[in-house]
Amino acid sequence: MSTSSFEINVYGKVQGVFFRAYTLETAEKLSLKGFVKNMNDGSVYIFVQGKLSKIEELIEWCKKGSPNAEVSNVISNEVKSSEQFTDFTIRH
Asked: Could you tell me if residue 16 is inside a domain?
């Protein structure tokens, strides 16, 4: 299996609505690795590795997000990464 790496930035009302916890749950269900963290500008940053089709599912999920989230924009970019993650975590 070829592993892809993506950076995903999610904008809108995405902090204080359990977005990171739901992202963790969704990523684990999709067997993805990486992390999610809140950013100082109010957005959420996700670094994810795994099968491309599963990353695409996560990106689609991000467009709706957690139940109380109000996502206004999702920007995703494929990146090269030498770091290999073994799990998916919430970073602070």
From this structure: yes
